[in-house]
Amino acid sequence: MLAKRIIPCLDVRDGMVVKGKNFEGIREVESPVALAARYNLSGADELVFYDITASAEGRALFADTLKEVASRIFIPLTVGGGINTLEDFDRVLKCGADKVSVNTGAIADPSLIGRAARRYGDQCVVLSMDVKRVDGRFVVFSHGGRRNTGIPAEEWAYRGQEEGAGELVLNSIDTDGVKDGFDCEMLQKVCKKLTIPVIASGGAGKKEHFLTLFDEVPQADAGLAASVFHFGEIDIGDLKCYLSQNGVHVRI
Amino acid sequence: MIAVIDYGVGNLFSLAASLKYIGAESVVTSDERTIRDSSAIILPGVGAFADAFAKLRRGGLARVIKEEAADGKPLLGICLGMQMLFERSFEYGEHEGLGLIPGEVRSIAPLTGALKVPHMGWNALDMRGHSPLYKYVSDGEYVYFVHSYSAQGCGGYVSATCSYGGAELTASAERGNVFGTQYHPEKSGAAGLKILRAFSEMA
Q: Are B163 and B142 in contact (CB under 8 A)?
């Protein structure tokens, strides 16, 4: 039986892991290599790195960071941030990434998903979506959650799957950083017609939130979080023990 | 020296890095001489069977690997590399494989009912017998899978299975000096490193 996955997410800028609230108020925390090593030891099932650098120097630094992590940590690594072309896929895969996550780049050109899937395989292409409630509907936002695309989330998720995405990350802008639980209502609605694995993101504040997620959204294969792990509010080892005791199948 | 076969399929960064990490000497190569001179061979691979096998054959590497395995050299196929060890695959048509282990590769979709395909994520090994590959890991160890096809009809050569959607999928198989893992040991954390160490010690 497949285990439910617990995935820490590391936003990296200029070689450091950063985390803010509701997509704003960024502050620095620590070295991505040290943090990744700690997560690996505590039982993280996968790591996600988002490159939130704007400069060329920062991008080169990110590549070095990624290589260092991939040389020391042997669990699946997903990389996202600024992926707009097949060359971008190539650039991060060469540094040791296993999966590449696309967001704004795929909204600008949906054919990117299919082209990448044909070249690197479906398993390599992760469609990441930032979703927000607008007038009672779930809508996709681009550009790091700043721009309303007007695209209904259910529609875009299904389109991504049909284009060839092998996995989907659903991040709720409404619950991101609020620490009051995952956006189960959104997840249930958007997951409904999907057959690819889904990673739930945004809103985890305590262990119980992961249990609620897996109970209420059986389609969710994984729970992703950042700050609660970075700041030690939830220890991944403790979390997995807790989930296991409560009947959730996890890798321990 | 372990030869990691480079035939233009997939990403070898993690495999090379993991061998280095456990202190096993390895070289990523497509050179016949280097492969002949190696003490063990790893055949990696992701993607579609037909395309990958054509690439392996084009460079004459399929013949070299077959001969070296027949000669008793330890060989480890990983993921698609494992699937190529069998007699044939039915992934988009029917294609001949290396034929080093009896059995064939078929879609897992009819076996797993309504569950998601690909089978992607961490699953537990259910070991059959005592494989030398598993001398440092115990039954129930979790490893990382990503695949839509699996080896079937390879009965006595199965060294571990994993349970998915009511089906027992072949997780690994072996015949003498030839080993195959459907999962990725280079992505399976500490357990995967132990499995690679066991293989590297056969070199």
A: no
Asked, for residue A252, whether it belongs to a domain, the answer is no
Count Cα atoms within 13 angstroms, Cβ side, for A209: 22
| pTM (2 d.p.) | 0.93
Q: Which of A51, A88, A98, A130 is catalytic?
A: A130
In a domain, A251, yes or no: no
Which DSSP string do the residues of B126-191 spell out, in sequence order? EE-S--GGGTTS-TT-EEEEEESEEEES-GGGEEEEEEETTEEEEEEEEETTEEEESS-GGGSHHH
Distance from CA of A115 to the nearest CA of B (A): 14
Residue A36 lies in a domain: yes
Cα B74 from Cα A199, distance rounded (Å):
38
Give A75's contacts in chain B (Cβ within 8 Å).
144, 187-189
* Count of the separate structural domains present in chain A: 1
Per-residue pLDDT tens over the stretch B14-68: 999 999 999 999 999 999 999 999 999 999 987 788 888 999 998 899 999 999 9
A167 contact residues in B (CB cutoff 8 A): 120
CA atoms within 13 A on the CB side of A11: 18
Is B184 an annotated catalytic residue?
Answer: yes
Q: Domain coordinates of chain B in residue numbers? A: 2-200
Q: Which residue is associated with the tokens 């990744």?
A: A36
Class of domain B2-200: alpha beta
With contacts defined as CB-CB under 8 Å, which chain B residues touch A45? 121-122
Range of the domain at A175: 5-245
Q: Distance (Å, rounded) from C-alpha A185 to C-alpha B172?
A: 40
Tell me if residue A250 falls in helix, strand or coil.
strand
Please indicate, yes or no, if residue A78 is contained in any of the structural domains. Answer: yes
The residues that bridge with A225 in the sheet, in sequence order, are A8
Peptide bond before residue A8 is cis, with ω within 30 degrees of 0: no
E strands, chain A, are: 5-13, 16-21, 24-30, 47-51, 77-80, 99-102, 125-134, 137-142, 147-152, 167-172, 198-201, 220-225
Task: Tell me whether strands B95-96 and B86-89 are parallel, antiparallel or unpaired.
Answer: antiparallel
Give me the interface pTM, i.e. the ipTM. 0.90
CA distance A2 to A125: 20
Q: Residue A143 is part of a domain; what is its CATH number?
A: 3.20.20.70
Tell which residue, A109, A138, A98, A52, has the closest CA to residue B144: A98
CA distance A51 to A82: 7
